[in-house]
């Protein structure tokens, strides 16, 4: 009777985890329950077919387990020539011990909604299923919180995997300074800011770290070269994304009963005729300018920026 | 559609790890905890039991047969099989969503705790930037009102800088596009509304009970009035990337952005910030709004 696939995958994990050194493809085929050993006394044609069918099955299993987070290592052994073997280090494959409360598990389930219908949807749900084994069992906890799905693209998912594998990527990018062009980068990390996704990495052509807004990537992200091809620096430069570093102050003049948001953030700095003066901190001048210009037409009482943001 | 093999594998490993940590566990509890039927739990345990090392030499997982017959999972032996750690995608999905909720100010207390646990267990899988701009007293008061089904009076400044006081039936705090919102029924508007938390200046919890139930169709109630098409030099692109439903195409040295406009005055203010880069704006209605906005700005700067 054929062994069901989940059973076969479990046996593959058990086998690769328990091997002292490694298992070659042949050993996997012949000893792991779920794969078909080569039929005895078969014709050459039958053997070739059986080999092909094993190869297809094993490649798919290996890919699915790796996507699940199981670190299947490739082990080469000079003694056995070019035959490749595989193994899993159990300590690296196991989920670290986490004790989660029922309320914490409920929050995780809300977090999956953030990706619903988007690129990490399946991954988020799979993650919650994994963490459910670390959670206490309790009555269902209802929390008055929710997350609506983020806008995301397949490019983001590919970049996340490339960061995990330390594998270079290539994509078409529409830059505000240099237009559309092909970029080749070693991705270091993905960044989320207020729901907007970025990737920071080493730009191979410009020979410097660069930040890319994922939304500006056109089409597919292609992984190139081998995994583990570069090191990720301990300190990743955030560049323009870091708003905390360089805070300046501008003085704005507001008509009474206007600019409520600016008033709340700012410090009163006296009055000037019919204007209330406020000092407001800002990191990005264009954001402050946008906020001030946005107020202009909303009411007759418009604000003005008295010291020019630079 | 049949269940994915890896989904079932993850649940099987989950059941194994759960029983290992919690001791003998009735099938009914496992079924409830993992969201499947008791029959499915039985089949999963059967499958775990059959796991074998190469060559059928050794069965690393063993359950008590007597307990199994009584619908209880009692682990006799587990030789090193455990749940699999999170993959990079899974780690980014959870840590990214929780941190974004936290940065926006829409993360409950339990979320802060679980995020700390995940961060400790995983290498930082994603960097999340942004400061929680929500007043803690505002959030606490709303959570309190929601928990006790009380109405609340909120002082609110809308996107057009209009300050209002509204009595609302508060329902949930929701993360939308990276910002925290209050989903509520607004008695002033006599309709469901979402209010941005960082624009709520003050909250008073009232004695009156909530009368309007939450609606499933909440979310943005702003209905787009028309679709705008703006051609702009690449350098001004950033100002349009956050527009609702925006589509941006490259066109030589420019980009062409198409997006929905709910409030033309607000959009006009946004366009003014990149005015030197604008190449063309349509429809006429948005051009007129842009003109009014520019005139208003010039009048006060004069």
UniProtKB/TrEMBL annotation, chain B:
Name of a matching Pfam family: WYL
Positions of the PafC HTH domain: 7-119
Coiled coil (UniProt feature): none
PROSITE patterns: WYL
Residues covered by the WYL domain: 140-205
UniProt xrefs under InterPro entries: CBASS_pafABC_assoc_protein (IPR051534), PafC-like (IPR028349), PafC_HTH (IPR043839), WCX_dom (IPR057727), WYL_dom (IPR026881)
Domain WCX: 225-298
Domain of life, source organism: Bacteria
Name of the protein: Protein PafC
Natural source organism: Demequina sediminis
């Amino acid at each position: 009777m054929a062994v069901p696939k989940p059973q076969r995958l479990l046996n593959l994990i058990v086998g690769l985890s328990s091997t002292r050194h490694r298992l070659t493809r042949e050993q996997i085929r012949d000893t792991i329950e779920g794969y078909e050993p080569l039929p005895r006394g078969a014709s050459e044609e039958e053997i070739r077919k059986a080999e092909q069918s094993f190869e297809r099955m094993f490649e798919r299993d290996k890919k699915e387990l790796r996507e699940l987070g199981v670190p299947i290592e490739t082990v080469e052994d000079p003694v056995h020539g070019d035959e490749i073997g595989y193994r899993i280090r159990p300590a690296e494959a196991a989920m670290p011990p986490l004790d989660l409360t029922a309320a914490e598990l409920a929050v995780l389930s809300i977090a999956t909604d953030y990706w619903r219908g988007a690129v990490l949807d399946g991954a988020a749900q799979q993650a919650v299923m994994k963490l459910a084994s670390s959670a206490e069992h309790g009555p269902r906890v209802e929390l008055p919180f929710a997350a609506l799905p983020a806008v995301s693209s397949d490019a983001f998912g590919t970049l996340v995997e490339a960061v995990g594998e330390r594998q270079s990527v290539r994509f078409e990018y529409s830059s505000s300074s240099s237009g559309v062009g092909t970029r080749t980068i070693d991705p270091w990390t993905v960044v989320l800011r207020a729901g907007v996704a970025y990737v920071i990495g080493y730009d191979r052509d410009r020979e410097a770290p660069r930040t890319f807004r994922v939304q500006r990537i056109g089409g597919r992200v292609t992984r190139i070269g081998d995994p583990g091809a570069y090191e990720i620096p301990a300190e990743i430069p955030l560049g323009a994304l870091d708003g905390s570093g360089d805070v300046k102050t501008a003085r704005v003049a507001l008509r009474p009963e206007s600019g409520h948001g600016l008033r709340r953030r700012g410090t009163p700095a006296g009055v000037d005729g019919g204007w209330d003066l406020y000092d407001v901190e800002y990191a990005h001048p264009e954001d402050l300018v946008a906020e001030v210009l946005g107020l202009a037409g909303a009411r007759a009482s418009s604000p003005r920026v008295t010291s020019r943001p630079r | 559609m049949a269940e994915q093999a890896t989904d079932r594998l993850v649940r099987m490993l989950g059941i194994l790890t759960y029983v290992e940590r919690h001791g003998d566990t009735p099938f009914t509890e496992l079924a409830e905890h993992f969201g499947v039927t008791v029959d499915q739990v039985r089949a999963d345990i059967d499958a775990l039991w059959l796991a074998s090392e190469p060559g059928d030499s050794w069965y690393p997982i063993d359950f008590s047969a007597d307990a199994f017959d009584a619908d209880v999972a009692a682990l006799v032996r587990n030789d090193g099989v455990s749940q699999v750690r999170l993959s990079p995608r899974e780690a980014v999905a959870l840590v990214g969503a929780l941190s974004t909720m936290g940065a926006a100010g829409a993360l409950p207390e339990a979320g802060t705790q679980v995020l700390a646990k995940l961060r400790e267990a995983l290498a930082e899988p994603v960097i999340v930037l942004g400061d929680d701009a929500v007043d803690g007293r505002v959030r606490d008061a709303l959570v309190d009102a929601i928990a006790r089904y009380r109405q609340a009076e909120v002082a609110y400044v809308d996107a057009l800088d209009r300050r209002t006081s509204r009595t609302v039936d508060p329902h949930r705090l929701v993360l939308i596009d990276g910002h925290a919102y209050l989903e509520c029924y607004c008695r002033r508007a006599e309709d469901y509304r979402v209010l941005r938390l960082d624009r709520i200046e003050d909250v008073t919890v009232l004695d009156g009970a909530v009368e309007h139930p939450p609606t499933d169709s909440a979310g943005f109630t702003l209905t787009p009035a028309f679709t705008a098409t703006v051609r702009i030099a690449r350098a001004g692109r950033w100002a349009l990337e956050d527009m609702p439903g925006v589509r941006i195409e490259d066109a030589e040295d420019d980009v062409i952005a198409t997006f929905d406009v709910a409030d033309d005055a607000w959009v006009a203010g946004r366009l003014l910030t990149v005015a030197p880069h604008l190449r063309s704006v349509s429809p006429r209605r948005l051009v007129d709004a842009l003109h009014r906005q520019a005139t208003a700005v010039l009048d006060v700067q004069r």
